[in-house]
C-alpha cells in the first residue's frame, strides 16, 4: 500500500520532526509513505474573506498538482465524517481489498482546503470538531494510520 500525505506548511519544531520521523519508520513495515510539504501562503492578520479565499485557492492549486489520477483522496475537513480508530483501519483495509492501494491524505493550511480540492476528494475525514495546528495534526494523522495498520494486522496497540 502507498500512503501519501500532501500537506501545506513546513514543520518548524524539532520535536514534531522527530515524531514524524518515528512514525515514518514504524509505518515502513506496513506501507510506502511519502510526505509532500508545500509552501503555505502568508495570511495577513486583517485579511478579508475574499483574500482568504484567494489564499486557499493558491494553496489548493499546489495540492492538486501532486494528486495522481490513481489516488484515493482523503481530505481532512472539519465538515467530514468522524471515524473511530477501528473504523479508519477498516476504511484503509477496504480500499486495499478494492485495489485502491494509493491513498493520499490532504492537510490544508491554516485556512483549510479550497473548494476545488474538497471536490476532488473521494472522502472527507474529520478527526474532531476542535481545531489543531496543522504541524501537530500531521503527527496525529500518522499515529492514527500506524494504529490502523496495527489493528488491521491484529497486533497489540494501546486502546
Automatic annotation (TrEMBL):
- List the subcellular locations: Cytoplasm
Q: Which reaction does it catalyse?
A: pseudouridine(1915) in 23S rRNA + S-adenosyl-L-methionine = N(3)-methylpseudouridine(1915) in 23S rRNA + S-adenosyl-L-homocysteine + H(+)
Q: Which SUPFAM superfamilies match?
A: alpha/beta knot (SSF75217)
Keywords linked to the UniProt accession: Cytoplasm, Methyltransferase, rRNA processing, S-adenosyl-L-methionine, Transferase
Q: Its Enzyme Commission number? A: 2.1.1.177
Under CDD domains, the record lists: RlmH-like (cd18081)
- Classification via Pfam families: SPOUT_MTase
Residues at which S-adenosyl-L-methionine binds: 76, 108, 127-132
Cellular component, GO annotation: cytoplasm
The membrane-spanning stretches of this chain are: none
Enzyme superclass (EC): transferase
Q: Which Gene3D superfamilies match?
A: 3.40.1280.10
Q: Which GO MF terms are attached to this record?
A: rRNA (pseudouridine-N3-)-methyltransferase activity
Q: Which domain of life is it from?
A: Bacteria
**HAMAP family in the cross-refs:** 23SrRNA_methyltr_H (MF_00658)
Q: How does it assemble?
A: Homodimer.
Its family remark reads: Belongs to the RNA methyltransferase RlmH family.
Q: What does this protein do?
A: Specifically methylates the pseudouridine at position 1915 (m3Psi1915) in 23S rRNA.
Q: What's the name of the protein? A: Ribosomal RNA large subunit methyltransferase H
Q: Which organism is it from?
A: Clostridium pasteurianum DSM 525 = ATCC 6013
Q: Which gene encodes it?
A: rlmH
